Amino acid sequence: MRPITSDAKRLISEAVRKTRFKLATFLWSRRSERRRRHDAERIADTILRGRIPIASVYSTELYNRFPSLQFSTILPELRVGALTRTQLNFIASAALFDRRRLSAGDDPLSLGELENHLGNGVAEPPVISVVIPVYNNGEYLLGKCLSSLATNLLFSKMQIVIVDDCSDERCTREILSCLERRYQNIEVVSLTNGPSGSASVPRNVGMARAKAPWITFLDPDNSICARGFDRLLNHVNGSPQEIDFVSGYQVKVSETPGITALNAKRGVEVVPNPLNTMLKRSIFPTVSTQAALISTSLLRDSRIRFIDQATGQDTLFGWEVLAVSKNTMFVDDTWLLYFAERRGSVSNASNQEFLSRLYKRDFFLARFACEYGLGEALNTSGRLPDIERYEQSGAVGKALAMKLRKSYQQLLGIELESCTSPTI
């Protein structure tokens, strides 16, 4: 029998991970209404008894109903006995809100009770700054984001900058207040000019406050895989090249799951000067900026910021980082769990608002391509704006299409045609 190569093992492992998740989702969707109701009741009973709720199946319905719920199918290593004390504290605190909602409706929670569940944390000189934008999703912050950060041995060496985008939900404000009091490495920044409606503003504010040599961005309702940032930093420290950007990939968790931004074909791949070796060769990859570590000095020296009020700003931000990076590393052992279809997400916007945000992204894409001499590469990459999408969206869309055509002609000398199919 031929030995199994490391590449084959990786592909098999990846296939198993995908299949297990799809199978679990499929089984949930095929369950009868009675069985589904029974599952939800069992989860609720677990929470009411003060235990950590773990489900063997995923569904959007369960995710939205129980912010503290953990899914063992997409986190195979998840075992209550294996949880760190800090991770357990965060999940238990999220379950506290679920339990109160199940037993007493929306009655206010005792802050003393919350603080007892949260525990406390010390701070060491920071190695990684984690920027988290928050707007009315404090329970997910506890049950998904912070609990995943707590799996890392580096947790006490993280400067966690939570930027509150004017939350008006009482429980979120209470959670943030308690977190800042109990954890020395958590800093809460409260914006005051009303909700921005975009993660870009709080991310940029958090970026300006970063003190560590490495920075990353994590949304409150997403999770990094267990010890993900430990692994990323180990990869960087173990590389003979000077790395200024390391990125994993993303697992979209929804009723139709998928994997994106998996750019490493063999474990770890280093791309020197990605501006010349990727972008100028018409390779515009989707890169994860959440399952990632970026040199803080690289961002500041290059003055890279997230575009406010733009759809797909993460993708363009990733390309801007690639354009200034000296050595980018892609890995296949660290991933982001991106939970799609959360109720109340700012990603769900009206058609006119979406068009306006799409236009802003496409306009800044032209400016980016002009700045780095990427007009020809962009033209042949399949990443041009979909003008037809604008033109089929009424008077507003047609007006935006005309403005885009003019911008691309003036900046890049490109005539935008219909029937393009961008994949940004």
TrEMBL record:
InterPro entries: Glyco_trans_2-like, Glycosyltransf_2, Nucleotide-diphossugar_trans. SUPFAM superfamilies: Nucleotide-diphospho-sugar transferases (SSF53448). Keywords: Transferase. The keyword Transferase applies. CDD domains: Glyco_tranf_GTA_type (cd00761). Residues 129-299 form the Glycosyltransferase 2-like domain. Pfam families: Glycos_transf_2. It comes from the Bacteria. GO terms for molecular function: transferase activity. PANTHER family: GLYCOSYLTRANSFERASE (PTHR43685), GLYCOSYLTRANSFERASE 2-LIKE DOMAIN-CONTAINING PROTEIN (PTHR43685:SF2). This is Glycosyltransferase family 2 protein. It comes from Corynebacterium wankanglinii. The lineage of its organism: Bacteria, Bacillati, Actinomycetota, Actinomycetes, Mycobacteriales.
